[in-house]
Amino acid sequence: MRLIPSLLIKNQSLIKSKSFNYYKYLGDPVNVARIFLEKGADELLINDCSAFKDGINFDLLERIASNTFIPITYSGNIKNINEIKKLINIGIERVAIGIYEPNDWNMVIEASKFLGNSGVCSILNIGYSKLLKINLIFNYKKRRLKYRYRLNQAIEDANNLGRGEIILVDTLNDGTRKGFSLYKLRYKFNKNIPLTAYGGIKDYQECISLWENNFNGVASSSFLSLLPPHDALLINYPKKHLNISNKNLTPPKVSIDRYSKYY
Asked: What is the pTM (predicted TM-score) of this model?
């Protein structure tokens, strides 16, 4: 069972979003990452929304990595293998590639050749069309739903490729704590593909339900950082509730030293 704190970074600040729109400022990402480490988190997911405009902030990521000493997965407009090599060199363990077009899987293939299947994730941001009454891929770069590259086709491509973990992002319930609404998509993926649920996580009981429904991981921000009803900042991590015999079905196999010859 994996419970993964998610840090959303914008312009070197830690922020929180709701339904993929800016909600509130949370603080310094380095300090918050360190607190999660002290609370017992085993890994972190960093989502860098400012990377689409300003590029990857390697200096900030290096400061976070050097203060946490736990596996970090980074998502943030990765464009080529050289950026991945630089991320590994500064202490990032895994990379996550956003899937918006069929050609985006090529980056997943290239990254997996370098890192291995366990060193790369694919992210499917999933929204809902009220007009068509179906789930569609949400293009984070362009802030709109994708109508040409349909979700079912993306799932079929993921099954055929069979490389790495898939992070399913519930963009509609993101930050709301109304619950993850994409449970049924688990059964459209091959059983051997690890899935992580992200977006709308309500509480620890929902985490248990997701694990029981064959999700390998649960990633969350609001549930682990905000205190209702007024969403005051309160970093928490229910380490004592987690099964100590954590299966961690997709442990990173990346060794930074292993790739030192590339630099």
From this structure: 0.89
